[in-house]
Amino acid sequence: MKRFTRCGIIFVIVITMMLFSVLLLQYNSEDFSLSESSFGLAGVARPQATEPNIAPPLNSTSNNLELNDGDTPFSSRHANASIVMLARNSDLEGARKSILQLEARFNHRFQYPYVFLNELEFTEDFKSMVKSVTNATVEFGIIPSDHWNQPDWIDEVQASQARKAMAEDGVKYGGSVAYRNMCRFNSGFFFKHELLQKYRWYWRVEPNVRFHCDINFDPFLYMEDNDKVYSFTIATYEIVETISSLWTSVKSFMSLHPEFVVQNNSMNFLSLTWGRTYNRCHFWSNFEIADMEFWRGPAYSSFFDYLDLKGGFYYERWGDAPVHSIAASLFARSDQIHFFEEIGYQHDDWSHCPLNKEIWEKGNCDCSRDHSFDYDDSSCKKFWDRISH
Ligand SMILES: Nc1nc2c(ncn2[C@@H]2O[C@H](COP(=O)(O)OP(=O)(O)OP(=O)(O)O)[C@@H](O)[C@H]2O)c(=O)[nH]1
Ligand SMILES: [Mg+2]
């Protein structure tokens, strides 16, 4: 009997200790939902499931997106994104050079898929030679003719007179229909291509561009996590003869649709006269990382259709760079546009090289900071700095 009582006491002590341990564990646990249901703590604030997005310091991306050497991102989070290149078959060597650069500096670790677009079918040679420089998925698409060619309602007499005059004046690509088709396609149609429907984000890459620094973070995720819609590395002035009436059309669109122009826009990047005149500044669109949902949305769709009907893609030579830049500056908040300091980038003779020495060293950049285009006389970066965040 006595032995039975002693056993009972020990049993009660053991059970009590076990219960006490469970209580302690629950108290220390971060899973407040479990505590809440167990102890009836309704109303106690739960901790956030994820860290809040803290704005990264100027000129730097958030460190939590950076990979370390040897990391593979295959198991980690990816954006719904692709790298897009518009190219001709004759651009093969330039296309391969750009991809080799981008793979070495970025995509060999991220494996974002590529989409190549052309108004003509890519040759088998083009396809196989491009595929040979990346392990990522590559798709090749043909552009529908109504997304590429000069529409019927354009008055060809007026258009050809404009081309002739521009060519005589020595305006770059002034006499070219193909260049105008390309600008119109990049302005209003690439994001409608069937191969891009499954993607939200894109990185535009051209043949023969260079990437000067290692990109150890995912720019797409940076954009997504920080509520960005458009990004750039170089900003410059448009050739005045190519956009004679563009700003007049922009102003009439704004009067018709004031609802699309957001508060905290970047009008101060575009105009030094509170919108009366256009300073010709634009983000250089041969580099773009942006959100196609923005181009597909009501403000831009309506804006592009309006401009298209004005005919300026053919009667003048409106470029996709000013068209995109004006739209992003007016229909997105200025804090939704991002300057990628870390992405050393070169197109033709102009390059953006990170001016910040720490960023330059961290990226193993092979560009000269002294020759960065950022504060060249032809750069518009100074206007962006006045409003950037
Ligand atoms: N498929 C196709 N692609 C084109 C055509 N014209 C230009 N492109 C592509 O469109 C993009 C822009 O063309 P570019 O000729 O580089 O125009 P740009 O950058 O304004 O001028 P550059 O200073 O000469 O580089 C590049 O990706 C070209 O490969 C064309 O007629 N057909
Ligand atoms: Mg180019």
UniProtKB/TrEMBL annotation:
This is Glycosyltransferase family 15 protein. Keywords: Membrane, Transferase, Transmembrane, Transmembrane helix. One of its GO terms (molecular function) is alpha-1,2-mannosyltransferase activity. Belongs to the glycosyltransferase 15 family. The active site is at E288 (nucleophile). InterPro entries: Glyco_trans_15, Nucleotide-diphossugar_trans. Gene3D superfamilies: Spore Coat Polysaccharide Biosynthesis Protein SpsA, Chain A. The chain crosses the membrane at residues 7-27. One of its GO terms (cellular component) is membrane. The keyword Transferase applies. It comes from Crucibulum laeve. Coiled coil: none annotated. GO terms for biological process: cell wall mannoprotein biosynthetic process; protein N-linked glycosylation. It comes from the Eukaryota. PANTHER family: ALPHA-1,2 MANNOSYLTRANSFERASE KTR1.
